[in-house]
Amino acid sequence: MPAVALAALLAGGCSVAAPWADGDRRTVAEALPDELPRLKAFVAQERGLGWTQDVPVQALEEEAFLTALQADPEGTEEAAGGDAEEPTWAVGLEDPFDGRAETYAALGLTPSASAYGRAWEDGDATVTGFYDSVTHEVYLRGQTWTPLVEETLVHELVHALDDQHVDLDALPREGAGPEEATAATAVVEGSAESVTWAWYDALDADEVDAYERAWGDSAPVTADGDEPAYDPLLETLALFPYDYGFLAVDAVAADAGPEGVDDLLRDPLTTTEQVLAARPDPRRLRSLAPPVDVEAPAAPAGAEVLGTGGLGLYPLSLLPLAAGAAADGYLLDPADVVTYAWAGDAWTTWVDPEDEDLACTAVVVRLDDARGRDLLAEDLAGWAADAGQAGAAVTPVGESDLRLTGCGER
To answer: Nearest-CA neighbor of 97 among 79, 113, 80, 82?
Structure first.
């Protein structure tokens, strides 16, 4: 599946002897004969798996890379030659369609649905490489061998190696919704990130300096040459499978070794609650149940409904951070997750009948019991007071439900 190679700096393995620390100016084509065997060996050692077949690697110029990315089987019907704009694959939390962007705006998680959508449309600018699980090839963006290219290649080689032992095309399962798709993606990306962090940790001081300089010099641009639009919520949702998926996979690897990661890939997590609960005790991974079905709340009579769906524990946990996100972005410590009594949720979002520029939402969150509901209501009271959008409220409903409402800019 396509993957954004993100800079995440943690712990790991053996020396990788990166030559670019000494001012390497080779093209990728020149570097690959020496560097690909070295990196494949490193990935195999860290992942604890053997290679069963070769993996072709191509480095493409900007236009050719975008063409390959958009034509990837995991992409959109539009990219494959159809007319539809919506993805054909089970989307994750970053998906803006069917009222989801408006829901985030109505909850105050993003300034507006349109701003969120613009940032989502510019997302290809941040993709530095991907592994195609159909052709079994790795594609890299750019022609010069750099620390960022090497990091991307390590990440994508893990996908390729995992795919030789576990069918990544089976993930997420057919019919999976956004919550389940995001949890499955977190396992896949967490496996790749675990090895990528080990790669970084194995760099010496000079190599780290070269890596940091490369990041400082990098600046993603859109196909039109512009700086990509930015949205703090989209950034944290896009990062979720990498950063939090790493924590989940690393916890399992520490507890059960490479075989445990294999098992996790074959039978992945199903909720963001499970991903967030991975630390500090890996045994908790299976103690959290898949989400229950929650009936979507009704929109006001006559209102234009934009869509229904599920929110998930991760966006729910971001609500207390929403007031400061425009300045500081989102950074959620798993220790600050709002609840582990989450059982499921459902939202309905509609156009405000009195102002077509506003979208309003109602979210029903089901908790394990009344105590969990009341504690979450207390934790979200500050969000309702500080959200800064019309109609923000937290209301207990029945024995174990909580109803969230709000309106925001479309």
So the answer is: 113
Q: Among 241, 10, 40, which Cα is nearest to 150's?
A: 40
Question: β-strand 57-60 against 137-141: which pairing, if any?
Answer: parallel
Cα separation of 246 and 269, whole Å? 13
Compute how many other C-beta atoms are within 10 angstroms of the C-beta atom of residue 338.
Answer: 20
The burial of 309, by beta-carbon neighbours within 10 Å (0-12 exposed, 13-18 middle, 19 or more buried), is given as buried
CA distances from 39 to 16, 92, 388 (A): 8, 30, 49
- Containing 313, the helix (H) or strand (E) segment is helix 313-318
**Close Cβ partners of 220 (under 8 Å, ≥ 6 residues apart):** 125, 126, 227, 228
Q: What is the pTM of this model?
A: 0.87
- Count of CA atoms in the C-beta half-sphere (13 A) of 353: 5
Give tens-digit pLDDT for 291-340: 899 999 999 999 999 999 999 999 999 999 998 898 889 999 988 999 99
What gap in Å lies between CA 304 and CA 351, rounded to an integer? 5
The structure tokens listed for 324 are: 């400061």
Beta-strand ranges (E) seen in 243-392 are 305-309, 342-351, 358-367
The rounded distance, in Å, linking the Cα atoms of 247 and 253 is 10
Number of Cβ within 10 Å of residue 237's Cβ equals 25
